[in-house]
What does this fold into?
Amino acid sequence: MKKNKRILIGKIGLDGHDNGIRIVSKWLADAGFEVIYLGLYNTPEGMVKAVLQENADLIGCSFLGGEHLFYCRKLLRLLRQNSLEDKKLIVGGVVPPDDVKALKDMGVSAIFTPGTMRDTIIRKVNELIAA
Amino acid sequence: MKASDKIQYDRYLKGETLPHFRTLSGIEMKEFYQRDDRPHEEPPPGVFPFTRGIHPDMYRSRLWTRRQQSGFGTPEESNQRIHLLLSKGMTGLNIDFDVVTKLGLDPDHPLAEGNVGLVGTSVATLEDMETLFHGIPLDKVSTTLIVNPPYSAIIMAMYLLVARKQNVEASGLIGTIMNCAISQLVGPTYQSGTHFFPLDPTLKIAGDVMEYCIKNIPRWNILNINAYNMRETGINAAQEIAFSFSLVSEYIRHLLARGMEIDQLGPRIAFFTSAHIDFLEEIAKLRAMRRIWAHLMKDTFHAKNERSCWFRTAIQTSSLPLTAQQPLNNIVRAAIQTLAAVLGGSQSIHTTSYDEAYALPTEESHILSIRTQQVIAYETGVCRSADPLGGSYAIEKLTDEIEERALALMEEIEKRGGFFECFKSQWIEKQINEARYEYARQLEAGEQIQVGVNMERDEDEEVKINIFRQASDMQEKRIRYLREYKESRNGDQVKRALENLYHQVKHHPNSNFFQTILEAVDQKATLGEISDTLREAYDFKVHSD
It folds into this structure.
């Protein structure tokens, strides 16, 4: 099936810091992606439901409260259970170096920590969608 | 030599210049400033409108309070960290609660599963609060409780009951309940302020807490506008000022309508502002805030008591300029930001730790923040005179220019129906998003330099940093605890207390709920149970998907 440029973006859990995710959403929209922004307070289950409904190929989440390992593990598990393992997950936010590795090992496709420049993100997202 | 190094090398030899001469708020600065730019003299410190400081001698008679935010994990863990910091020179408490608590949920709520005990301490029961403050004399240490309404009512009730157990009278309590519905969580973003509780009742219950504190806890600050969190969304200094004062005006009008006097309120409202990296502009901002507040209180609200006109602020150094790249650079940034807070005349300071871009502070970085403040206080000599930069042509002119911009924006907000209306219509949300996109654009374009990010970046950098780690079994521990707590209490009494609250909200919606909430806490109802009772009484359901 041909990949589209639809990206589902949302925050999972109760952390409300949305500065980064808002900026990245705008960058992606400006770069021609179709961004579906789900806002704050999503559950992993809700994200998976939205992936099915919206037929998005890429999922973007952001974590600033130390909850990244917990929610990424759960989201990836639910994606597998729903046979959605071809959907790729990208993560942004405050993630310590050791956890960047841990997230990659569990199957997160890209992690953008603070200070990542726009072009780096766009390039990576294009690569992931083309792959 | 690498090609990139060669480019840098040539640039250094050529002589370096700044990309532009604008402040973070966009004020274009001149080549130099002289007397003509600002001919009239500002009244001295301690004299209305207090631009130069609220006291004539400022730090000569008392240094600012070193108030580092603390709170993580279980109440036991936070209690230990508080005792450590007090032993290392912290002089006031700043208690942060985890986001689960701040959204009025218990740790066993399905939405809470990944967030328990992160970025603040988990408090659900009266017993938790007793544990958190174990061994801390509440009549000697001043405490700031970082919590928003309506849950501020529950936390305040817990604090009062802990004081009662310590045999401390309400009149002996010193400190602050933040208690702002809009600025507290992550700044005034719409969804964060409306998702877990309807907005109007939130504001009403904030008023209940304020009214109760005014009548019963004479030395307690009833409201703290969290300008810091608003600024951290990406808005500029002028917006930080305007949003804060437009917002506080709404609360004041609400309390006046309840029959209170302005001079009962003024001395008990304080602020929590940011110190960003633009050194001169931040100092000017604080001076402008003092002047605007003094006039607002006297001219708009007709305060008679001079203390009502004192703009008192705690400051946290902003984390926006801090970078994940080359994290040690953040120590330098935070020191300069702290110096701006001191030269701006702050009442208390939290120096943000250099590892903020990675995690909560470790013990080591927490102590380094305290030491930063001590170096500035005791070694640099900047505390010898009040407002030592007062009379500087550039500072005075910048103060005027920021004031002018802030006043214009406040006027616009008033024209649009006031801050609450602008928040509800999401006009504020639009301002925030535009500002944060603009700040990001400036960083991308290299107009705002961040060393290590868009200048001198090392793409191969491997950061070696000691990270604070939390125990991974936190939520399970907390759920187990909560189950045992609920089994140990008298269920009928809890049920009755919650029914009383429900009944009061339903049938006496304009009465003050605080006492009833306090009784429910005393009967061992949990924070989540009380919050759910309120939600139910307002026919509100938390949407979760």
Summary: The two ends of chain B are 55 Å apart (CA to CA). The domain at 48-445 of chain B is CATH 3.20.20.240 (TIM Barrel). Chain B has a mean pLDDT of 93. Residues 46 and 56 of chain B are 4 Å apart (CA to CA).
